Amino acid sequence: MKRAWFFTGLVGLIAAPAFAEVVLYDGQSVAGIVYAKGRTTELAAGMLSRDLRSLTGQTPRISTDIKTCPQVCVIIGDYDSAPIKHLTQNSDIDPGRLKGEWERYGRVAVKRDGKTYLLIYGSDRRGTVYGVTDLSRELGVSPWEWWADLTPRRVTRLTVADEARLSKTPSVKYRGIFLNDEDWGLKPWAEKTYEPEVGNIGPKTYARVYELMWRLKANTLWPAMHSVTTPFYGIKDNPKVADDYAIIIGTSHAEPMMRNNLREWDEHSEGPFNFKVNRTKILDYWRSRLKETAADETIYTVGLRGIHDGPMQGAETLEARKDVLQTVIGLQRDLLKTTLKKPLTDIPQTYVLYHELQEAYDAGLKLPDDVTLMWADDNYGYIRRLSDADERQRSGGAGVYYHLSYWGRPHDYLWLGTTHPNLIHAEMSKAYALDARRAWIVNVGDIKPIEYLSEYFLDLAFDADGFVQTPRDHLKGWMTEQFGAETADEITSIMMGYYDFAFTRKPEYMGFSETEPVTPVTESDFVKPDGEKAQARIAAYADLTRRAEAVYAALPEDRKAAFFELVLYPVRGAANLNARVLNLALAALYARQGRASANLYADKARAAHQALVADTAAYNGLEKGKWRDMMDMAPRRLPVFLEPVYPQWSPSAQTGCVAAVSGGWWNDENALTFVTGQPRTRVIELFGRQAVAQNWTLKTDNGAIRISATAGALDATNGYEQRLTVSYNGGAGSGPIDIACGGKTIRIHTKLLPAPPTSDFIENDRRVIIPLASQTGKGWQKLDGLGHSGAVLRSNLALPSLTTPQGHPLIYRFSTYSAVGGKLSIVALPVHPLNPKTGVKIAVQLDDGPVQLMDFATLGRSDQWRANVLTNTAVATLPLKMLGAGVHALKLWPLDPGVVLDQAEIRLDGADKYYGIVE
């Protein structure tokens, strides 16, 4: 049955005879396939034949001759191909209306001589292919049927509605993927498992990639290009297969003029890759590739970098690099024009504004109007800049190069696909709104395990109407397609939790180390000051894992491998890496506190690592070894991935029981505090000093408090510790909590602070947290599902940059009962200015104080930027010398377009410092 959520890009019906349905399989006979002569249509017919065979168990007859058709036949060809012309002559159907269109298709059923023909005709080769892939998907074939082992299920009948359809032009002209950092997945898998006869990523592997691109309606590939991989043009069949599949080949910023300098330029024989001293040889080097690719469908990247993704040789200053680039681009365009013998306006060209290439452009480099400006993100999902009003008038338009995988500083994320779908939605909707619509290329690493995120990005590129759908709804539709409606809600919830946790901090960053240079693992900030953040994170990941395992257990066998690849391995992998890091850090903290449980936490860390190793081996063994060498749990062997030493501590010399509240040591002079009228839960940790069983009991006379257990034992079954949840219901009450354990009574006092004046937000634990999306107004757009507080505010993209606030502010009223100093922090997402004419500023005012500016901009790869992208925050702070008790008002105005605000924190003196801002 057709699922409307993924059938994007259709404009409606076209005139045609009406039938109730077209029966492609009636339980006994399957439709035949006729294709117009041509390698691309032949491959499309073969793909459709395999899909029909998977669905029905019968192999369709494939032919180029209409006369061979059985009772029902699918006809595949371009709008002006012979079989399409033959079957539409003397009818109201006009395939010729697609002439000159880009990647569109029509589909219509006709009857002739007692037979039924389902015609699929395209405006070009890819349009025809998309008509075929849409048909397959409508019949129940997932785009990931091979790449994620979602083998189509057998059916007893196959039909499609008879309504004629005509697709619309894709929203983004060039939509594609970049195979990158392939050293730990795609290349070893191709070399050893899938294509050992080539021993590298070769034509067989690329053919699989191209078919996936067909099914995802992508048309452009930047091939794999690391030193471990044979250059794309180094294997003669690679470009031929690309042409067979009508795939457009382009290259990254580091590979101008279709050249992989890392493997193709030999400095020993050709000299330095320095244009200032070796111009002739470099021009000849480019010219030879242009001759080789003259007949291919390509997008040429202009510009110049170093041998690989490094600085340009021979130009030490920004001004020098700009001057070299200005000369180089002019000469490159001369080569394109004279070698390809076409007008430059007919040769697609891009300038990828990445690192120093953007710096040179912003410094005044002049680019020809027909060259596409390919804006890049900062490698962490935040687009560095987009076209201003003048640049949006350029004939070459603009595009985006975006990362879902990255190798580099401050830290790689090459292992799991963790970019939040809501961030993709926010950034790419911004790009589309500001006319970056010519080309979208996404860095997908090894393809696996970034399957869903890749498809989401490409779906938005193909049909921008998808932006009206929430990322959660898109993910649910995708999970419904893969695993069925009965489990889709639960899987969607699991995966959104997985993305939320990674937004707080990606699993690859849990070592709190960095790269370039590589620094050692350091103690996790989640453990500071008391371990409660770490405990909560471990528990939350464990709950996600439990839920994912429950879904896995209930799935039919034919979907378990796919679920393991798409959901269970990523969820459990992230959970286990977090558990290993955090349990080891907790072990050290608890050893310092003299807890008997310290060694047990080290054991938990070891078990988490062993589980991660086992899951990775299981992944590589799926489907009888189909994915052997695809999954590597330690790309680049960075410190965070390596198995640590698991210390063991001697028993404490002290005996007895101890109670800790939020990690603090409590006696009769301390109290567990609550604020009157504010329900709240706390944790008491009761633990033994030594590995000796001890019974305990608890009582309290405080009627406003409930405790999760009132008696138990500290023994080997619970690690000689008990975590007790203390729940305050908001009512009046007082009285201590007495715990009898180890021959003594431990008393924890409870204290109710007076209720502050009523307001929307109230001080608790000496801080006030304000989710800023709780208000909205003119000049702001609410983006649900993004940020650390569940929603964010984005200042309108059309807002002019201001130096002083204008209009009505957003007003947030909050109450405090303490009269102390502190600081006000506004937490934003680390977005960049839309263009050099704008910034990332807001104005704030507290009560009747001065209006003050807050600026979230960072420079280059500064230390502040590095900290921002690792936490997905940008924090601006103002000191508060003294904030009196009572009701206060925080006012906010936007000063620049595109600023994304998450939450405010008023942190008073004495508040504990935790990881991040959110409690």
Describe the structure.
With 919 residues, the protein is an alpha/beta fold. The chain folds into five domains: 4-166, Chitobiase, domain 2; 174-469, TIM Barrel, CATH 3.20.20.520; 495-641, Methane Monooxygenase Hydroxylase, Chain G, domain 1 (Up-down Bundle); 657-753, Immunoglobulins (Immunoglobulin-like, Sandwich), CATH 2.60.40.10; 761-908, Jelly Rolls (Sandwich), CATH 2.60.120.1620. Helices cover 30% and strands 22% of the residues. The protein is built from 20 helices and 37 strands. The strands form seven sheets. The protein has an eight-stranded parallel sheet. A six-stranded mixed sheet has the order 3-2-4-6-5-8, sandwiched between helices. Strand 17 and strand 18 form a beta hairpin. The longest helix has 33 residues, at 560-592. The protein starts with 20 loop residues before the first strand and ends in an 11-residue tail after the last strand. The model is unreliable at 1-8, 13-17 and 665-669 (pLDDT under 50). GO terms for molecular function: hydrolase activity. Residues 1-20 form the signal peptide.
